[in-house]
Records
---
Amino acid sequence: MTDVSLNDGLDDGRTPEAGFGDYLALLKPRVMSLVVFTALVGLLVAPAPVHPFVGFVAILCIAIGGGASGALNMWWDADIDARMKRTRGRPVPAGRVEAGEALGLGVALSGFSVLMLGLATNWFAASLLAFTIFFYAVVYTMWLKRSTAQNIVIGGLAGALPPLVGWVAATGAMALEPWLMVALVFMWTPPHFWALALFVRSDYGDAGVPMLTETHGARATRNHILAYALLLAPVALALGLTSVGGPIYLAGSIALNAAFVAGAARVWRRDQATAEADRFLAERKLFKLSLWYLFLHFGLLMVEATPLVVRLEGAVAWL
Amino acid sequence: MALRVEHEIHRRRRGRNVGLLVVLIGFVGIVFGLTVVKTLNLGSAAEMERFDHVARPALDVAAEREAADTTDAAAPTDQGEEETQR
């Protein structure tokens, strides 16, 4: 690369060269945090010891795999992103990174993360990570997102799989517990997202993306939120009855699910006029609660996995 | 447009290069760390030799001898069982 290329585009205010941060932004770091946390819990609660360094590499690979699917998403959805206010500033539609670069980065990091996870842990976990990337990039991004209002429901599976990948990385085998963790995230995603969609003015419709709030309206979205909240509760409680659960998890889960169902019922009872009158207060509360809901459920699984002595010592130290 | 010695673009490029350097060093660190962990977790030094990617007949002979010893050790027990049955 020479300085001659710099003359192009500098005068018109464009930024022709990407910084390192632009490439990081392609990996959707905020989405990555959920992936890292749930995968870490899946790995730590698994009944098999993992060397800390191998565990660190496994989580890193899962995070990079998640980031790679984010880059592939930004490559494919560059046209949609350019039409929506929220996503207009992303590196590809903003012109800082070329779409081809996003594709190259996504493919390269996908291959790298799968290969490294296979070498660090086992090839079963690596193939599950490959499936997760495929599901997000191809099934969700390329197929479902533009074709059905249920896109985030089915596509949510990609975001739900990391705890299973973490578990398999540790044990090398499937079990009921990680699948219940997957089900927990899977059933949590729709009410979490739709609560947000109710109070955030989106331009998905202008971009041609069918979202439930746009295609079926607010009433149907409220009905869906309550239905998913009710279906979510037994899944969350069932996890407490398995080997990774326990009394602390169960007590916390009962309280969280009672609060979540009550919040969803509050949102369900309201109509759009009432919601607009108090600037979507109940919807905002439910969205905030949904963040705590998932964080605390997985946090409680970690607590259950911690030996009693360590827990008691920690409690005494805290007091 | 005349380029100054230190243009904003140069700073951005440097940032990108430093970022790539950090990533590459991190990659080397991960491969090195994994190698150390995997080799230290091997059962015996003989197993470490299996990573040479070269045929090691001595290892196979040792494995055969070990298998034969295990069979010999098990044999008297079988005889004992037969005598008991009689």
---
Amino acid sequence: MTKIPQDLRYTRDHEWIRIDGASGVMGITDYAQHAMGDIVYVELPEVGRQVKAGEDFIVVESVKGANDVFSPVSGKVAEVNEDLDGAPELLNEDPYANWLVKLEPSDPKEMDSLLDPAAYAKLVEELEAENE
Amino acid sequence: MKRTPMYEQHVAAGGRMVDFGGWELPVQYESSGIKAEHLNVRSKAGLFDVSHMGEITVEGPDAGKWISKLVTNDITVMKDFQVQYNIMCTESGGVVDDLLVYRYSPEKYLLVVNAANVEKDWDWFSTHLPADGVIIENISMKTAEAALQGPAAEAILAKVCSIDVQAMKFFTFTDSATVGSIPAIVSRTGYTGEDGFEIYVPWEKGPELWDLLLEAGKEHGILPIGLGARDSLRFEAGLPLCGHEYTDTIGPLEAGFGFFVKVDKAGGFIGQPVLKRQKEEGLKRKIVGLRLEDKGVPRSGMEAADESGRIVGTVTSGGYCPSLDANMALCCVETPTPGEGESLWVMIRDKAKKGTVVKRPFYDRKYKK
């Protein structure tokens, strides 16, 4: 079963984000890590970089190929998860505990356009049905 | 899309099916994944469905002479029931395909070609066919094939095969074996860098062969293996892939497989004058192996650069090698190429990532000679 925690918001590109006041933390979903397969390297952005919602700013490399990861919201990269540096497989093990980037969102209203857990679960269900 | 006879078994085993050159085949299985499958072949055994490969028979009094004109290696040294690796070149010295030549007798051969190239090869053969003395037949859709690979392959096959597999030499075959009760062609060949066998049976017997080998291999820890690990295994073992190390313009000498190119072969072959000249004048570019020291994963098509940032070539294959736990690349670069221990850079998303040139193959092959 694909795990979809209830306390997060999601994108159609399979990123998750949790906003807590002025800061957000984001990563890739269980569906994403499963589709990518064994993850071997994560290319994280520079701290301080300004990104727009939907901009590709992280690359997750798996044994199959390179996968772009898009920012769920606009803002500034505040912190990157250095733990992934020597242990990218952590993303396969638990993609929710092992976040990618902390962001300072610049436009709180953008959160409204993200998927809630129910809507994301429906999307995943449709994709899984297609792949059957 | 075309399906092999083992399609249902792949789906039932959790195969993640993808389009591979018009064939619906598993890239990996859900319960294992590419990395686990790769390591399982290196340490135990793996079973690959390679029924998509092309098989073409060549018969007639002039069969040997005709094949010799098309391929780079010297097939006149072959004995009956030997297998030989060959490359088929264009007039300009590029590559049409690489293939295995199985000799039954001086008048009968089996050619095993890449799945993606069956039609192209068939056209190439047909164009070059003499008026008489040679009959070719495409038996690809009548022939299922499984590759049993890994250190336990011999023990597994011995359980179910009628012949003495231990006595079988590397790159030989028999057409008088039965596996279970299935009549089969069995060769001691493969595409992983491990010891192993490739087994050809009638198309409709594919599922039976598959189940039989998985059952026999259970006690040895066998796993079914998808296309993902097939590629990472061959890459790590330094085996070329047509369309990557060989292309219309990258020939076999530049790719580093001159051992299989007999430029002075009697009777000549298509592409021989160009390859002979390349050899005499020296190669303008060559494929080298690279271990990436900086972080990143090199991929096919990326550019290779020298210290000054000048582009000197391209990556032909690249990726993570599970047995080495390193990111590696094969790069076709202009000569003089950097030597072992020297640096070469790969441009990954506009950033130059440093690597060290290392010997090929990356993984020492474990063939049983």
